[in-house]
Amino acid sequence: MERGNKRMAKLVENRTKVDAYKRRAEELVAQLTLQEKVRQMLHAAPAIDRLGIKAYNWWNEALHGVARAGVATVFPQAIGLAATFNEELLEEVADATATEGRAKFNMQQQFGDTDIYKGLTFWAPNVNIFRDPRWGRGHETYGEDPYLSGRLGVRFIQGLQGHDEAYLKSAACAKHFAVHSGPEDIRHSFNAEVFVQDLYETYLPAFQACVQEAQVEAVMGAYNRTNGEPCCGSELLLEQILRGEWGFDGHVVSDCWAIRDFHLHHKVTADEVESVALAVNKGCDINCGSLFIHLTEAVERGLVTEATIDRAVTRLFTTRMKLGMFDAPEGVPYSTIGYEAVDSVQMQALNRRAAQESLVLLKNDGLLPLDKSAIRTIGVIGPNANNRRALVGNYEGTASRYITVVEGIQDAVGDEVRVFYSEGCHLYKDKVEGLGAAGDRLSEVKGVCAQSDVVVVCLGLDASLEGEEGDTGNQYGSGDKRDLAFPGLQEEVLRTAYASGKPVILVVLAGSAMGLGWADEHVSAILQGWYPGSQGGRIIAEAIFGEFSPEGKLPITLYHSVDELPEFTDYAMQGRTYRYMQQEALYSFGYGLSYTQFSLSDVRVDGDQLGEGGVRVTAKLRNEGHIAGGEVLQVYVKAEREGTPNPQLKAFRKVHLQPNEEQELALTLPLEAFGLYDDKGKRVLYEGDYTVYVGTSQPDTRSQSLTGQQPVAFQLTSHREREL
User: Which 3-state string (H, E, C) describes 116-127?
Assistant: First the structure.
């Protein structure tokens, strides 16, 4: 209730400020011709010299740092940021990204550069649900849980947009709305069929939080249809839900060239003119692409009114005014940010901290951390050991320096330890050299292992294999995976290293779940590195040698096999993710080990009844070990009725503790945390019992067996049913 009141007050305050910008925008739009208005609805909006309106390109990216426009800090990919389970860190990273974005924009404007990727409208974050590990773009998201995705998305948006009372630092965009997570190769024609209950329970909550709490400036529609309607022209999504139920007052942008899919692939319109009319009439304001040029004809044919065009263009100029583009620079606080802010010492330090918090230690039989003084030689093997692309993921900027895993280890040990290196195999082919025989590096793998006291095997993927349709060249199909297997000869390299008898540490650089069943049974330690950013190799080396303790938690489930999952094209949530799966995971959502030990004590819940104010949870978290570390207090809620989801994450808090340090934490579960959506899309608090689990992982059997810890459980009761 308290969060709802604050949200409403913030909306009222924001609406007042927006109204002033909107009036100015309306006055400007009134001076434009129809043709001028239409051209402002393209992502590459031309200048209107007679009114002093500069050209502006709306298309810019900032998924994990400013992308595609030269040098910028390349932070860990979004899935790695999600593994930090740290809301404050997400806002810091986004704020740093906005700072660099402003610095680059100010410099580019000085030299008259208004090219693509040079604006202040960032098409990030991606808060789609990573429902299936085969989806190639899952590493752009914050994982499989709607609550975690919403919390991190909100803070990322707040970091990008800033907290100035008058101006946006940059404009964020929540994408891709909605019900979008592959397959990539059929996304232009695919119809995602989804139950209303799954729509509201899983696919919409993160977007709703981004709109209503973070007040995101823009929303991007998806390529696919949802229940028959193209997302960029959907009455249900854009009119009824986004602008109707949620009160969104920003602008909507199409995904790139998605409007032409209406007639070419979805077959819901006859031609370009009908397609642009459908999109704009349903509330899509700007076209990533050039098809909206047909809006002039759509108006002439009576398919769109000029008033509808005015509404869209007013929204667009309102955003530009919020960014200060029509005010004197001396009155806009962000216009003084200089180019020296880009790639600064402070940015690099934040990048390293983000990478540290993102690493997830999946297994450790005691081998880690390594003692440099106890080894003479170390082998570093694998196609991702010296692969820069495996550091950065997609939608990335250009770093001034990249540190791969082998480089990080070489720097860490200096001349004290000999480092032997082998690529081991190609990332996905059966040989490295085109004229060589299959397995042309396996003898080298054996030779390196024979020389080494311990072996680090670095496997996985990069954005050439998993990513967006059109951006990848994998043999699986448009960036998606067909299964969880390591491509090519990678697992053979791992088995060869294990067969040497030397201790093996597996480092996985990938943005999605890989098949780690054999590794879990055989190797000594497994470190999930994701795509850890431009300095990721340095951070992984520091983790291996114990300069800090890994503290990341899995934002996704690591399955045994895709055979456990429904069809990739099935958007029903039953059997998917930790919330609905029935089988035991290989490694569970919310799981991650540490080099130190934490204990929970004095765990309390205030009462056993569900009242209007929700529930307050308190607990003391203590670092019982000998080194500093980070831990995440996790709170899950389970409705004890037939047919309800497994315990769901509903609150979390990341803390860092020195050895023997203890901290008391308090988390609030609002009444909404106990509600579930019905088949009409209404959230209902049902009469009956609810279990609240408080711990440092989810309350599943696999996590408990791996950690040796069991969350504390509390029973609460609701004595009446009500709609929330």
Answer: CCCCCEECCCEC
**CA angle, residues 331, 334, 340, in degrees to nearest 5:** 130
Which tokens go with 354? 């983000």
pLDDT of residue 24: 96
Q: What is the dihedral of CA 100, 104, 106, 107, to 10 degrees?
A: 140
SS3 652: strand
Distance CA 461, CA 699 (A): 30
Q: Which of 468, 591, 567 is nearest to 141 (CA)?
A: 468
Residue 648 CA to residue 494 CA, distance in Å, equals 35
- pLDDT tens for 147-202 read 999 999 999 999 999 999 999 999 999 999 999 999 999 999 999 999 999 999 99
**What structural domains and CATH numbers belong to the chain?**
2-341 (3.20.20.300), 359-549 (3.40.50.1700), 598-723 (2.60.40.10)
Among the listed residues 87, 357, 407, 466, the single catalytic one is: 466
- Output the pLDDT for position 476: 55
Q: What is the DSSP string of 458-499?
A: EEE--TTTSSSTTT---SSSTT--SSSSPSTTHHHHHHHHHH
State pLDDT tens for residues 221-262: 999 999 999 999 999 999 999 999 999 999 999 999 999 999
The residue annotated as part of the active site, out of 255, 343, 480, 631, is 255
Query: What are the beta bridge partners of residue 622?
Result: 599, 662
Report the run of H or E that residue 318 belongs to, with start and end: helix 306-322
The pTM for the full model equals 0.97
**Which pLDDT belongs to residue 19?**
86
Closest CA to 496 of 461, 524, 457: 457
- Compute CA distances 162 → 75, 76, 80, 158, 168, whole Å: 19, 21, 23, 6, 6
* Residue segments in the chain with a per-residue pLDDT below the cut of 70: 1-16, 473-477
| Annotation says 255 is catalytic | yes
453 catalytically annotated: no
Q: How far apart are CA 356 and CA 359, in angstroms?
A: 6
Antiparallel, parallel or unpaired: β 454-460 and 504-509: parallel
Instruction: Select from 144, 129, 151 the least CA-distant residue to 210.
Output: 151
Per-residue DSSP letters for 343-393?
A: T-HHHHHHHHHHHHHH-EEEEESS-PSP-GGG-SEEEEESTTTT-THHHH-
CB 481 within 8 A of CB 535: no
Omega cis (within 30) before 183: yes
In angstroms, the CA 385 to CA 453 distance is: 18
How, if at all, do strands 662-669 and 615-623 pair?
A: antiparallel
Residue 307, class by beta-carbon neighbours within 10 Å (0-12 exposed, 13-18 middle, 19+ buried)?
A: exposed
- At position 531, the amino acid (one-letter code) is Y
Strands (E), 189-243: 191-192, 218-221, 225-226, 229-230
Q: Residue 472: its pLDDT value, please?
A: 72
Inter-residue contact 533 to 391 (CB < 8 Å): yes
Note the pLDDT of residue 469.
87
Contact yes or no for 147/649 (Cβ under 8 A): yes
Backbone dihedral angles phi then psi of residue 391, each to the nearest 5 degrees: -85, -30
Q: Is 24 exposed, middle or buried (0-12, 13-18, 19+ CB in 10 A)?
A: middle
The residue type at 436: G
Query: What is the rounded radius of gyration, in angstroms, for the C-alpha atoms of the chain?
Result: 26
116 vs 63: CA distance, rounded Å: 16
